[in-house]
Amino acid sequence: MKFLVFKKETLLFFLAVGVVLASISAWFMLKAGDKTVFNQQSDTSIREIHMVTVEFKSKMKNGKEIEAYRWDPGSISLKQGEKVKLFISGINGEKHPFYIEGTKIKGTVKKGEETIVPLKFDKQGTYRLICEAHSDRAHNGPMIADIVVN
Ligand SMILES: [Cu+2]
């Protein structure tokens, strides 16, 4: 039987080649991973709707400030049974605790943060997204958006 005898330098050379090959394959595997994630995203295709919290502000002649808060857009529509992801970004106003009428959905939109609300309605109709902090004109509202399902 013959044994292969390697010099120390030869072993180091093969080790270096091995490391390079491992790096290259790892790079390809990571690239493939990216593609898979991309494909998964396009396959599920849940529609995204983006909304923001806004504030209208004005100064009266007597120096008094008046303001009103709104969801923008103030009305969104989706199909019956359609899955939608509603992203609400808090721009104006520190906090908007909200609920959606006729559902168990509730949450809070905070300034500088994005609140993601998964939506799916089995019945047609108009569901109101209501901010509890700005529910009527006396509280700088009404901050209400219509979710129209048809
Ligand atoms: Cu509000």
From TrEMBL:
Read off the SUPFAM superfamilies from this record: Cupredoxins
Query: Which residues, if any, are the signal sequence?
Result: none
Q: Give residue ranges for domain EfeO-type cupredoxin-like.
A: 52-139
Q: Which InterPro entries match?
A: Cupredoxin, EfeO_Cupredoxin
Query: What protein is this chain from?
Result: EfeO-type cupredoxin-like domain-containing protein
Species in which this protein is naturally found: Neobacillus rhizosphaerae
